[in-house]
Amino acid sequence: MQTNIRILVLAALAACGAAHAQSSTFKVGVVRYDAHSRTNGVTGIGIPPGADAVVGDATTVVFTYEYEVKPNVGIEGVLGIPPKVRAKASGSVAFLGEVLTARNVAPTVFVTYHFGADGDRLRPYAGIGLNYTKFTNATTPYGWDVKLSDSVAMAAHAGLNCALNKPWGLFGSVARIDVQSKLVATGAVVLQSTIDFRPWTYSFGASYRFQAACLTALRTWAHRAASIESTRPVQAAPRRPAGG
Length: 244
Hints:
Elements: H1 2-16, E1 23-34, E2 38-39, E3 51-55, E4 58-70, E5 73-80, E6 84-91, E7 98-105, E8 108-114, E9 122-139, E10 145-148, E11 151-163, E12 168-177, E13 179-186, E14 190-197, E15 200-211, H2 213-231
Antiparallel strand pairs: 1-4, 1-15, 2-14, 3-6, 4-5, 5-8, 6-7, 7-9, 8-9, 9-11, 10-13, 11-12, 12-15, 13-14
């Protein structure tokens, strides 16, 4: 029985991850989203030449969770509260003013390398990853039915972690993402445009680092299971009757 318990514990530890004590880091902060957008123009029947639009910048709250897979390498997920982005008409149709608002949902996953060693007060980092962008709640004051296509593209980021004490710290980062979305607005006429976003994001906030709960809980359970098993009395095998 004791051997079986040990086998189960070892299997569970293997399923949870590596042999060293992995850490996780949770971050929350403010992010500035600079769109750096450009389009191939707005086209449609009756639309004058030179019609265009400009997408504005936005600010929101960002959340980050990073799981340490090796002492200097982590898998990081980033997601902000979807900001409202606004587009204004420009060029020959600038008189239309604001023509579109939408929410930008853009989760990103990074593989991040941390320079320096665990315990250093200042640790720069850099990573690459994949971004998925979806535009929701697209509305327009002109009654058009607006559709914006989703985008999947590469992303890169770099930043600096500053430890205040063992769990708490501050962080600052900058990221670059490539986003392309095709816009189709249907009303009295059909308007089309392809918007290329080359956003830079600038984040600053607080971080909290903690040991992975899975590994800690399994170690505690393993010690308790081994202690219980070692205190159980050994039952003698029943004796057979003589001559049986």
